[in-house]
Design brief:
2 strands; 7 helices; transmembrane helix; two-stranded antiparallel ribbon; Amino acid permease; 71% helix; transmembrane; membrane; mainly alpha
Amino acid sequence: MRLFSFLSSLLVVLSFALPWFRFDGGEITFLGILREVLTMPGGFNGAFWWLNPNSTAGMFTFIAFFAGIFMILIGVLFGVLGGRVGPGVGTVGMLVFTLTSWYVYGSGYFEVLAEGYIIALLSFVVGFVVAGGEKL
């Protein structure tokens, strides 16, 4: 069953290049989000102005957003290395990422989702059920 964990995590890695969100102004891939996280051209406030890290609720949202991204990356790493826990961690990371993004974008959240996000979510869930469903 480790093969399913590997394949599902590999599919998630391939989804990183596909658009995760579609807005009127363009598309955002997971690699674009990750680039903003790592390079931070305008600092935290410049790159993530929509998370508003200056307020208490905004700081919690800010931390949850980064925790979701970190858990997605850890889930992919564990899954690609053949661990059955990888898709489970990735599924929890996608849940945290989804709830945080849903909080930020509000009721229009499901209209901005693109195929990369859907592929990543379904791949993690299928990998968790098939590879880790028997025992973690």
